[in-house]
Structure formats: structure tokens, C-alpha cells
Amino acid sequence: MKRSQIAFAFSFFFVTLLINFNLSFIAAGQENSNSPIKSKLAGSRPVIHAINYASIQEAIDAIPAEGGVVQLPPGKFEIEEPLVITKGDVLLIGSGSATHIHNKNEAGNDAIAIHPPQDAKLPNGKKDPKPRIWRVQLQNFRLTGNEKSGRGINAKWVQEIYIHGVTCSYHGNDGIFLDFCFEDPRVSDCLITYNKATGLNTIGCHDIVVSANHFEENLDALRCADGFNLCMSGNNLDDHLRDGVIIENTYGSIVCANMIEECKGRAVVLDKECYGITLSANVIAHNGSGIILDDAHGCAVSANTFTLLAADALKIGPKSGRITVTGNNFSNSYIGNGKVKRRTNDLKAAGLILDKTRGVTVSGNLFSSVRPKAVEVIEPTTHVIFGNNLLIDVESDHEKLKESIIKNTLVAPAEPVKEEQKQAKVK
């Protein structure tokens, strides 16, 4: 063999040996990633890899008091008892939907419970009467249950909780329940579906952000009770078995730029002394009814599109008043030239109901081909400004308003069908 060939063979053997050694070293490090290492970064703590523990709960229990990260591997993990988190500054992160935690308990147990420790102490050693934990994050995994299981995520007294990129489905109760997680709760980019109760149920929370989530076929999509400063935007709600958004005893909130479709009940309801809430730029389509103001004051309903509602696109009830209704469109599926997009058995389209209310401004709205009336007035309804509205192909009670101002309102018939369209129909 030539000297150059010998040198090449030796070099190849040496490089192969070195690569194999490095790969073995890396693999050993991965398999033992929780082993103590000398970090160059002062104050750092290693990530806890759940793959190195007998259960996810053991990995969570390994989090130090200062907090830490638990990394969940891909796989399906069946549980019968709740995964319990009682520490703050915790991130439980999965590998996307490839990490699937399934609650097979049939006795009503929740899948994940997050709350302060029961024996929380004050600095003086006495029991803390109002314990809290701060900054718990759940991210990037799939969480499922069954018809007899409890809630998916049950969080109580957790401040600044952040749930992001979680699929939460098929639970026997609420998908996510935030119980007095009152400081800055955030739920975003989640898929919340097929839960037997409310998809996202919040009680006693404030400064709430609910953004860019999908809600489908829960009993109700979202409930916000006894709170304030809800910011709900950019969500898609579809096919709910009862209501879309239920807001009760809440003020200073906004529900905007949401798609709310095919809820069997109400798309949005404000009840139990709501005030100072804006409902704007939502599409309310094909629901049992639209926005229902049962007990609300000082609220604005603006720039929404109401289409194909079975009844009561917007209803302002006897316990509601001081409402602004402006720039909304109430319509059916009309697409021009005498045509409607939907079949003749799906022409539902409802208008505005003023039910014994007082102090309402209705301006700059368009009502077209809604039934039975564009505006239905149930007496006594008084002190209404009804102006600058356009009514096309409808009947309306707005002229029955008493102690009110009615001006600049145009009532027009349906647009005539063009000649070429008539001929096309004959053919």
C-alpha cells in the first residue's frame, strides 16, 4: 500500500473515532441532563427534563422553591390524579401537540391543579391567610379528559398566570378555570374545544387578556364574572352548545375583532350590573341570537356585523340603558341583483329590540332585509335618539318611539332586479 493511502486510512479512522466519542458524550449528557454541571452563568439552574423521572409529578416536585422549568418530552401520558403545581416562577412546557397528557379519571378529578401550598407561611412563621403564587406558565402541550373527568386546568390564587399554545379538550367540566387569578391573567393562542362546561371560565380576575384562541363546541365559550378590564380580541368562536361570551358583574372591558358563529344560544350577553364595556368590530353570524344586554349601562355597541341571526340581533332589555349603538350592519345573505347566498330556508336575519329601555343612541346603522322588523319597540321605551340610519327592505317600529328624537332616517325598498337578471331567472 502506498504511503499516502496509509495516511488517508489512518486519518479516516481517527476522525471516525473522534465523532463517535463526541456523539456518545452528547448522548450521555442528554440522558443525564439533570446531573450537576458547572455552569459559567452565575445564578442559573438546570432545566428539569421529565423524561428522566418516573412521572410528570415527580419532575414538577423537583422544582426548587425559587422556581424552574420542566420540559415535557413527546409522548402520551395518562394520569388519574391531578398534576399539582404549588410554586411560583414555574414553566411547564411540552413539545407541541406531540406531548399529550390524558386525564382518564372518571371521578371528577381535574387534570392540572395550580394553587398556593396549603401550609403557606408568612415571614413571621404564621399561616398566610391569603396565600398567592406568582408567574406560572403552561405552554405547548395537549391536555385531554373525558365526560366524567373534572376541569382541564384549575388555577386558584395564581397571579400573572400565562397559558399559551395549549390544546385543552374533552374535559367533563370547564376547559380552563381561573379562580381569583386576579392579577394579569393571559390566555393566548390556545385551542379550547369540546369541553362539557365553559371553555374558559374566569371568576374574580382583572386585567385579563384573551387573545387569538380557538373555541369550539364547548357548552359556553367564555365566562367572565366579578371582574374588570377584560380584553378579548382576535378569537374564533364556533358551534357552541349554548352561549358564546357571558360577561357578568364586570366593568371597563372590551370585546373586539372576534368571529362568533353558530352558537345555539346568545353570541354575547352582558348581565348582572355590567357597565363601561365596548363591543366592537365583531362578526356575529348564524347564532340563535346576537348581543343581549340584560343588565348593562354605559356601554357601546359599534361597527359589528350581525348576519343570519335567528332572533334578536341586538336586544337592549328593561334593566339596561345609556347605550350607544352606532355603525353596525344588520343583514341577511343578500349579494346583489335580487340574489341571496343562502338557501330560501336559511334567510334568518334579525334586527334591534328596544325592550322598555331608556337613554339609547341609535345612529349610523344599516338595517337590510331583516325580519320581522328592523327595530322593534316594546313600550315603555323612551329618550332615544334615532338618527342617520338607513333601512332597506324592512318594516320598523322606530316611529313609535316616545319622548325621543327621530331624524335623518331613510326607509328604502329593496333594490330593483336588473333586466339581465330577470331574463336569467326566466331561462
From TrEMBL:
Please name the SMART domains in this protein's record: PbH1
Domain of life of the source: Bacteria
Protein name per its UniProtKB record: Pectate lyase superfamily protein
InterPro entries linked: Beta_helix (IPR039448), PbH1 (IPR006626), Pectin_lyas_fold (IPR012334), Pectin_lyase_fold/virulence (IPR011050)
One of the Pfam families matching this protein, by short name: Beta_helix
Could you tell me which SUPFAM superfamilies the record lists for this protein? Pectin lyase-like (SSF51126)
| Organism of this sequence | Gimesia aquarii
Q: Where is the Right handed beta helix domain?
A: 152-306
* Gene Ontology terms for molecular function: lyase activity
Q: Which UniProt keywords apply?
A: Lyase
